[in-house]
Amino acid sequence: MLKEVDHSQEIINSIKVAIGTDTAVLHEPRFNGNEWTYLKDCLDSTFVSSVGQYVDRFEKELAGYTNAAHAVAVVNGTSALHMALQIVGVKSNDEVLIPSLTFVATANAVRYCGAIPHFVDSDFGTLGIDPVALRDHLKTTTDFINNQCINKQTGRVIRAIVPMHTFGHPVNINEILAVARDFHLVVIEDAAESLGSTVSGKHTGTFGELGIISFNGNKTITTGGGGAIITNNTELAKLAKHLTTTAKLPHRWEYTHDEVGYNYRMPNINAALGCAQLEQLPDFIDAKRHLFVKYQSAFADLPYVRLVSEPVDCHSNYWLQTLILDETIAEERNDILAATNEAGLMTRPIWNLLHNLKPFKGCPRMDLSVAISLEKRLLNLPSSVHLGEENKL
Amino acid sequence: MLKEVDHSQEIINSIKVAIGTDTAVLHEPRFNGNEWTYLKDCLDSTFVSSVGQYVDRFEKELAGYTNAAHAVAVVNGTSALHMALQIVGVKSNDEVLIPSLTFVATANAVRYCGAIPHFVDSDFGTLGIDPVALRDHLKTTTDFINNQCINKQTGRVIRAIVPMHTFGHPVNINEILAVARDFHLVVIEDAAESLGSTVSGKHTGTFGELGIISFNGNKTITTGGGGAIITNNTELAKLAKHLTTTAKLPHRWEYTHDEVGYNYRMPNINAALGCAQLEQLPDFIDAKRHLFVKYQSAFADLPYVRLVSEPVDCHSNYWLQTLILDETIAEERNDILAATNEAGLMTRPIWNLLHNLKPFKGCPRMDLSVAISLEKRLLNLPSSVHLGEENKL
Predict the structure, then answer these.
(1) Which residues contact residue B178 at a Cβ distance below 8 angstroms, ignoring those fewer than 6 apart?
(2) Which domain does B19 fall in, by range?
(3) CB B316 within 8 A of CB B168
(4) Of B47, B92, B263, which to mutate for an interface test with A (greatest number of A Cβ within 10 Å)?
(5) Is B231 on the interface with A (CB under 8 A)?
(6) What are phi and psi of B321, to 5 degrees?
(7) A65 part of a folded domain
(8) Digit-coded pLDDT (tens) for B149-159
(9) Does B150 touch chain A if contact means CB atoms closer than 8 Å?
(10) A195-206 pLDDT, tens per residue?
(11) Cys bridge to A55: A99, A105, A271, B148, which one at CB 3.0-4.6 A?
(12) Chain B contact for A224, CB < 8 A?
């Protein structure tokens, strides 16, 4: 089919200019530091599993980096979310407010607690929860009974809210905290994608009661598989550590477990990788921010796209570079995805909106117009650290 | 206090004779093979996480070793149990028969499904479920309604049974299969501790509908943290893979998930370790069996203890060497634990019986006399592979 402008080809050209190479995957990890040394140390010491110094060190250094009082390392971001929800008291048949525009793990973690996701709309700027629309929704659809926020339609308690910092861009967390305060909701911050991203200099994940981070292989830094809970609440941190390590009471040899616990502890070998990666994080973020500048320059002349950039007063890690197509070419999204991937430039759309997935179809939700609009028009671009490193360009 | 015979000192002396050294931990892993090479390959290729060849290879080689049609690698044995229970249809408010004398993970996994553990007694020989006592218990306490086994007292369906091969010694699986057939129970075999143990030449974990294995740091081989589901049922294997990888449907770029899934996939870096360990498994088991012979000889003259040995027609991996104190000195167990550990020889008791733990106190159970007797008298001895290697002795 003949088009006046071949949008796919123009986008391909701009990506190539930005990344300075002809092909690229979406995101690959970078192992330029002490990964090797620390892994070898694990093998030599035989401490690869649930005992070893790297888990403690990783937790301490992660807490230091994020300026949280405590960090608890776990097997992945999903388990971190599961534990965070359970620890703040999310119970069977509660509702939990989560974006429809997020990864499925959030909705799954809510279900692990027996609770019900209640889907919230997004903001065109941050891609995260829109606090203004949410406040209006809660005002008209909820009541206070016994000091709890009750969904008038379902009769269920709305217990918590899980704002997510999409692709590393901070959500409007201060306004969300205000809504949460007014409607008596616990805030669990999903900072899975936003390690290194801050709001007014404060690290994402440290605004809510608990925050969670992911170290999956596609994240800014990786532990193979891994996650963490961060918090300033010492009691909750202790509970997180206890529950994620089979709820065993300390004893020289006795096996007494005082709750239904979980085997969610990050193995030492994965934490060793994390320690090495964390040392390089500031450099990684510099490179990713530099890559954004390159993309911005390369896409400046294409009027039918915009790049997602950090919100005012925020510092983003630019985990995944994100392109939003103009409404006028939204229907070309799949053609652009096909053309870029066929050209060896890996792109992907945003996740399918969760309220449309089979296991969550019947769940409560507010008007989701913005999320629906974004879903149709959003693409992630090649975002690996090495693409943004000066010496590569 | 003066004693005619100082049992603790005699046991300490025998342990030293058996292991040929003065101090030892309970069990440490052995990295003598390609661990280093495979880990370095992960780093060099950047495939450390959810993509990479080692997971597929580990699953294939594990299936080959156990002679199971399929293996699905997961983050740990607990998650393997959780998924196995869910996959065979264990539902909220079902009962699941499990030993009281086992690690807490089994009872926890049952609870993750919303089901209720129903505790079963053990056998003095195998330390695992006693099928004769179990049959008597089920005969008198259950009814068949709609072809399902119903606990007459609670009215709940007894859906499944989870026999465990304690410390690597095979349970009487054939008799348990017969009981399961007669009472319409699904068998999930807990082979967490019994990799390399066989019954009539057939690998433990392949008798039930599904089997699970653990690769925690204290097991015969380790992946840091890890587990696997093994099965000959292709449909169940597919379902296990699907559920443990967020239930995502295959697509070039779309994120469609058709069930509440889990993030339980073993990371590639942990699987790489597993591949190297699996290559050495036959040697490890030879060493562990040799260590048993050494213990047997060293303890031959102490009439007040016996070592647990492999049941007839079984081949045990002798994961943890196990000493049973005579009833006459049962009350000295804690003194012996204290004395051995203070001497630098790490020993531990068996787990606290699960029916006594706070979260499971109200659960149904049969008469547990044997488990109660064993709990008081059982000690694990230093069992590391290197203690049994010829060149160390």
Answers:
(1) B131
(2) 7-31+280-392
(3) yes
(4) B263
(5) no
(6) -65, 140
(7) yes
(8) 999 999 999 99
(9) no
(10) 999 999 999 999
(11) A271
(12) yes
